[in-house]
């Protein structure tokens, strides 16, 4: 088990080390990014760390004008909505030197995780009884799916319905293809750098895929996501493919890592789809990840405990289950609740 967005504003130690440092800057300071990644592993005893970063970091490293504004999210220097906009954009390259801070941060994190693992009590620590071996804490690499990156670029900022992105997808499919092939290359190189530096798995986040129909996803999005994952297909790592609002896309999302050549992969399921229903849609050979409702982290313990137990029970319908949230940790979550959930799950 681990928690999506487990490193972040819910932790007082995170707020302390981030004081006065912008979000993207903190992602690109290797020692700081490593420390933030390690914080929830120390506190909660989870079974995996997720690399602290942001899906727009590869855009910044490729020279795109992007910032993360408090209370808004990623904001671009301009919307990229025409063929000329995209033509200028895709001339930018993410070169190997630009990825140096990422490689350094991952290496520092893996070294820190090794130290934490060596210090864990194999008989008593919350994270000792886990599927990756007693005491072992792997690092999961992080990357944004090409569609979600493209949607931010076209919209210029966060959007509820991604109308401009979906319009470009249909009005000018060639330009849309050029854009998503370019974002796939950025994400693929970003993920590959993390794995080569020591990450043990990768998760592809498609935050906005739920806004698409199944037909649009299969025709205009799945190929670019597979293209991104081909960058790590020859490396000995499993993959996790996650999106929000994607209950109708689960089987198509399952097929993306397979198309990329990943031998082992799981599908992340958000809180809207019960895991037994997801397992039935995915087939008997697909592990699942999820899907505790983040809203219940603020509910009375007896309500949350019953929900976690139900999620675990439903997860037994799949051949493997990584217990997680069905989306990220809300910033106002009491960290003690997350620790209590981790201990409950390990007790099961």
Mean pLDDT reading? 94
* Assembly state (oligomeric): single chain
CATH topology description: TIM Barrel
Number of helices, where a helix is a run of at least 4 consecutive DSSP H or I residues: 15
> At the first level of CATH, what is the class?
Alpha Beta
**What's the CATH architecture name?**
Alpha-Beta Barrel
Percent range for helical residues?
40-55%
Strand content: 5-15%
Low-confidence stretches: 123-134
Give the tally of structural domains.
1
User: Span from first to last CA?
Assistant: 11 Å
* Overall 3D shape: globular
Cα radius of gyration in angstroms: 19 Å
Kindly report the spatial arrangement of strands forming the biggest sheet: 1-4-5-6-7-8-9
N-to-C SSE series?
HHHEHEEHHEHHHEHHEHEHEHEH
Instruction: Find the structural class using helix and strand composition.
Output: alpha/beta
Largest sheet: 7 strands, parallel
